[in-house]
Design a protein that fits this description.
binds ribulose-5-phosphate; six-stranded mixed beta sheet; alpha/beta; four-stranded antiparallel beta sheet; 13 strands; 224 residues
């Protein structure tokens, strides 16, 4: 199977996993990216089985609506049963790097509101140590240079993602060259820098479950 087929397989596996949990008033949290798109497309066949979705990006909201799935604003919702999203990297503790699609701030918010976070990925995303994928940091535009100087002090090489404006109107710095052995500490340290909106480490709130697609099929992995 090629990578696109693995993404489709894991998108379908996520639908199969959540389907028994869905009720007529269920709100499903939906992430962003090409793997999340596969989940959205597979979910569309079951749009009568739940109430609506909340989304972590304008792009995913548009895709959901194109399938006839209702999308609520997050502020209008009390409870999100489950959030399903991809990742750029994941480790055995189900800590993640996210934000390759510049949506990690909203992804963190929807994750925080959700009872369960199911991460979906193909096996190319599985790593022993996080950090080979540059860590995205969303910043208030006027703070970009200051934040970059602080990130250098943390040992990384910050690169401005040119031409990228997030759904929140902010900019992205990609932090290269980090070998992240204490993801919770780094997530906290970066969050302390004035002007940082959110960074792409999901370690303080990791995934609850990882569905990982490989040539042998889709494996279900819980945190060690
Ligand atoms: C977007 C994300 C995505 O989940 C991450 O970039 C993975 O994307 P893809 O499924 O296209 O590989 O965090 O901000």
């Amino acid at each position: 199977m090629n990578q696109d087929q693995l993404k489709q397989a894991v998108g379908q596996a996520a639908v199969d996993y959540i389907l028994p949990k869905l009720e007529s008033d269920t709100i499903v949290g939906v992430g962003t990216g090409s793997t999340a798109n596969c989940f959205i497309d597979a979910l569309a066949a079951h749009k009568g089985a739940f109430d609506a979705a909340v989304s972590s990006s304008e792009a995913s909201a548009a895709r959901l609506r194109s399938h006839g799935i209702t999308v609520y604003e997050l502020n209008a919702v009390d409870k999100v049963l489950v959030y399903v999203d991809g990742a750029d990297e994941c480790n055995a503790s189900l800590e993640l790097i996210k934000g390759g699609g510049a949506a990690h701030t909203r992804e963190k918010i929807v994750t925080a509101c959700s009872q369960e976070f199911v991460c979906i990925a193909d096996e190319s995303k599985w790593v022993a140590t996080l950090g080979k994928f540059p860590l995205p940091v969303e910043v208030i535009p006027m703070a970009r240079a200051y934040v970059a100087r602080q990130l250098v002090k943390l040992g990384g090489d910050p690169v401005h993602r040119m031409g990228c404006i997030t759904d929140n109107g902010n900019e992205i710095i990609d932090l290269h060259g980090m070998s992240i052995t204490d993801a919770k500490a780094l997530e906290t340290d970066i969050n302390q820098i004035a002007g940082v909106v959110a960074n792409g480490l999901f370690a303080r709130r990791p995934a609850d479950l990882l569905l990982l697609a490989g040539s042998q099929g889709v494996r279900t992995i819980y945190a060690k």
